[in-house]
Amino acid sequence: MKRNIELLTFFFLLLSLVGAGILLKSQTLAGGKAGKKTVSTSKPAAVGGHEDFTDMMNGIHFDFCCSLEALVIDPLGRKLGYDPIKKKRYDEIPRSGYGGPVRGSTPTEALNPPKEIEIVAAINGDYIIKVTGTKNGKYGIGVSTHNTARQSFDKLLAKDIPILPNIVHVYSVHYDSANLSATTVSGGFDGGGQRPKDVNKFLTYANPSDSQTDLPSGTTAFPLMIFYGNNAITSTFKASLNGVDVTSLFNPNPGSHETVNINLVSGRNVLSLSTDGNLPSRIATDTDRLVFIVK
Fold it and tell me: How far is CA 62 from each of CA 36, 39, 273, rounded to the nearest angstrom?
């Protein structure tokens, strides 16, 4: 899903909303060159009396393709997007929007249209991305961040991830307007249980999204989507399934992620995972216990 995203038209729309004129051209998204930093040649303009609207140039743009609906939760807990399970649309983040198909979609994409989320005047912090499958297929996620210094940074968050109807994958994206290259992605579920909470970031998960997952009869495997934190000491990583060591199934590296198929049996399956990691003043251990119930 490689293309340029033109934000110029979007910001002209803001003229009618806030009486401000902002010109910014941003380039990004799924299938593009990850980690590319660009500087716009246009200059920001803030008009409308004595008010300053340049903070609106702090923003995040997500592209999603395909076979899904998406929901974003910002650091203040405000929601934007659509939950197809609850059949509910959220529009709680001011001056921002969710929709599709995206501009420039191909005829093939029009049959299974991509979606996009635009967040204007983004605040710094962690954004939770919930992706819900609408049909059997694969999806990708791209993100572009930009700031008042007219800088932008593009990153491919996910590519060719299998998903089924009503299955939810959860990601966390960190946004820092002062350091766009620090845009990071991790699993939206951290397993919980450890103190301080930073210890929980050594191992995170996009799938599952809770400590217990109920699966239909006949399920024989689960695609575990695991993220290893930048501060994880992955040489200490261990994993066991129903008491049997399965560490060899994993290829842990700091700052990386992977999908590992976990074989399951009927009834209760317990996957235990752990790794040490570095805190500012000491080494701590993140231990997670994930339960899979095959009915």
Answer: 15, 19, 31
Domain with CATH 2.60.40 in the chain: 210-294
Length of the chain: 295
Top CATH class, 210-294:
mainly beta
pLDDT 10s digits, 41-52: 333 333 333 434
Does residue 216 have a cis peptide bond before it, meaning omega lies within 30 degrees of 0? no
Cα–Cα distance for residue pair 140/77, rounded to 1 Å:
24
CA dihedral 67, 141, 185, 10 (to 10 degrees): -120
- Pull the structure tokens for residue 259: 């999908």
Residue 118 to residue 97: CA distance in whole angstroms: 5
The pTM of this model reads 0.79
Alpha-carbon separation of residue 272 from 99, 238, 245, 252, 291 (angstroms): 39, 8, 9, 15, 9
Amino acid at 201: K
Query: What does residue 171 show for φ and ψ, rounded to 5 degrees?
Result: -120, 160
Q: Which helix (H) or strand (E) holds 89?
A: strand 88-91
Residue 249 neighbours by CB distance under 10 Å: 14
Q: What is the pLDDT of residues 101-120, one digit of tens each?
A: 555 556 665 566 788 999 99
3-state secondary structure (DSSP) of residue 109 = helix
DSSP three-state, residue 197: helix
